[in-house]
Design brief:
The structure is a single chain. The chain is of the alpha/beta class and about 450 residues long. The chain has two domains: about 140 residues, Aspartate Aminotransferase, domain 1; about 280 residues, Type I PLP-dependent aspartate aminotransferase-like (Major domain) (Aspartate Aminotransferase, domain 2, 3-Layer(aba) Sandwich). Helix content is about 40%, strand content about 15%. It has 16 helices and 15 strands. The protein has a seven-stranded mixed sheet with strand order 4-10-9-8-7-5-6, with helices on both faces. A four-stranded mixed sheet has the order 1-2-3-13. Helix 7 links the parallel strand 5 and strand 6. The longest helix is centred in the C-terminal third of the chain and has 23 residues. Keywords: Aminotransferase, Pyridoxal phosphate, Transferase. Belongs to the class-III pyridoxal-phosphate-dependent aminotransferase family.
Length: about 450
């Protein structure tokens, strides 16, 4: 820590802050990058250096990094009331208006909205609703949950078990029993020679059915999936007819479909919902992030009438629906989220993303000629660049080579912030991005790939 100036924000940070998803010991030596302001798709650190944000921070800064309009809404709501809960029948108009709006734009007919404070909370609450539903139906044995390998669904005790990434479980004694992981539908990496996308999807569905039969259909409560697989898989679109075939299996065995729209929702994929883009017909939808353009912490769970009927049945039996978080339905967060949805309508967000989609896919798709790139795929303004050691054999780099981290570091040097896994670069820029900025972002990524290739070839 001797290289950090005493009493500087960097030194104070390492002395007091434990950072999520950060190497705790190494951080004491390196210190933080402190970001101080933003404008449009650019975020600025405390030295004044500007970076293009290629990942919308954590997938969520859909309107960029500052908004006078949303700030005024937050101020006015805070000035009038500031806070009140929605427990025991209490309510507030922003929460009511927001729930009505979410039902109006839902991907399929939904009955009620349960407001929460984060994507993790939304998925955690949806998990409880799945168990609550089957208990109400007199089928408490339908408790096991199937998600997918390389999926990410949150960091609570329950949602980290939904998350299908073993590294996230290490050290915590997780996952708990009852959480199962279907194959990640990564066509590029895992398809057999001559196998079409549709044939691959059928193989995924057959494997899911085998898992269900092996475990016992009467023990499976729900299947959890983000329409385009985000965090762990790196913005991975499903292969052709994947969800059509998966949902046929789920219907056969009366298993609920939960769509995690925390990343995909609100225009990101070229439709209002990723479910619409990928053909998902969910019983429950979870959403967050772009719901408020990340300007306030808020999330929501949308449930269909079948699930709500079970909530009423259990309320009759138990006297109340006993679940909630103190800040759920917070009037300031709800007001900001509602205004965010108005902004999306005014800018015709879905049409904007659809218009930019071919430019986005073409600009980054051109990287397929790079020696480090095996494939590029995406929808809307969400896509992934597959990094490979051997293009002909589709072979990734050894994990210890940390190729993604190398690309990320070189991109930072070029003023571009990315989200990388071991062998994939995920792209999800703010939805206000322009055609010119897309082209510039792709050029900076190509430069980072060139720098990485030169480094590993040296």
């Amino acid at each position: 820590m001797t290289h950090l100036a005493p009493n500087s924000p960097h030194a104070r940070d390492v002395a007091s802050v434990l950072h999520p998803y950060t190497h705790a010991r190494r951080h004491l030596e390196t210190g933080p990058t402190i970001f101080s302001e933003g404008s449009g798709i650019y975020i600025h650190d405390d030295t004044g250096r500007a970076y293009m944000e290629g990942a919308s921070a954590l997938w969520c800064a859909s309107l960029g990094f500052a908004s006078e309009r949303l700030a005024k809404v937050a101020y006015e709501t805070m000035r009038r009331m500031g806070y009140y809960h929605i427990f025991r029948g209490a309510s507030n108009e922003p929460a009511i208006d927001l729930c009505e709006k979410l039902l109006a734009i839902a991907p399929v007919p939904m009955s009620k909205v349960l407001l929460q404070c984060s994507g993790s909370e939304a998925n955690d609450s949806a998990l409880k609703l799945v168990w609550y539903h089957w208990n109400a139906q007199g089928r408490p044995e339908k408790r096991k949950i199937i998600s997918r390998k390389a999926s990410y669904h949150g960091s609570t005790v329950a949602t980290i078990c939904l998350t299908g990434i073993p590294d996230f479980h290490k050290g915590f004694g997780m996952p708990f029993e009852g959480f199962l992981y279907a194959d990640c539908p990564h066509y590029y990496r895992d398809h057999e020679e001559g196998e079409t996308e549709e044939q691959f999807s059928q193989r995924m569905a057959d494997a899911l059915e085998e898992m269900i039969l092996r475990e016992g259909p009467d023990t499976i409560g729900a299947f959890w999936a983000d329409p385009i697989q985000g965090g762990g898989a790196g913005a991975l679109p499903p292969p052709a007819r994947y969800f059509e075939k998966i949902q046929a299996v789920l219907r056969k065995y009366d298993i609920l479909m939960v769509a995690d729209e925390v990343i995909c929702g609100f225009g990101r994929t070229g439709n209002m919902w990723g479910s619409q883009t990928c053909g998902v017909v969910p019983d429950i939808v979870t959403c967050a992030k772009a719901l408020s353009a990340a300007m306030q912490p808020i999330s929501a769970v949308l449930m269909n009438e079948r699930i709500f009927q079970s909530v009423m049945t259990q309320s009759d039996r138990l006297g109340s629906f006993v679940h909630g978080f103190t800040y759920a339905g917070h009037p300031v967060a709800a007001a900001v989220a509602l205004e965010t949805l108005r902004i999306y309508e005014e800018m015709d967000l879905v049409a904007h993303v659809k218009a930019l989609e071919p430019i986005f896919l073409r600009a980054f798709g051109a990287l397929k000629d790079h020696p480090l790139v095996g494939d590029v795929a995406g929808h809307g303004l969400m896509g992934g660049v597959e990094l490979v050691q051997d293009k002909a054999k589709r072979r990734p780099f050894p994990e210890g080579q940390k190729i993604g981290a190398k690309v990320d570091a070189h991109a930072r040097e070029r003023g571009l912030i990315l989200r990388t896994t071991a062998d994939r670069v995920a792209l999800s820029p703010p939805l206000i991005i322009t055609e010119e900025e897309i082209v510039e972002m792709a050029a900076r990524l190509r430069g980072a790939l060139d720098d990485t290739f030169a480094e590993i070839a040296a």
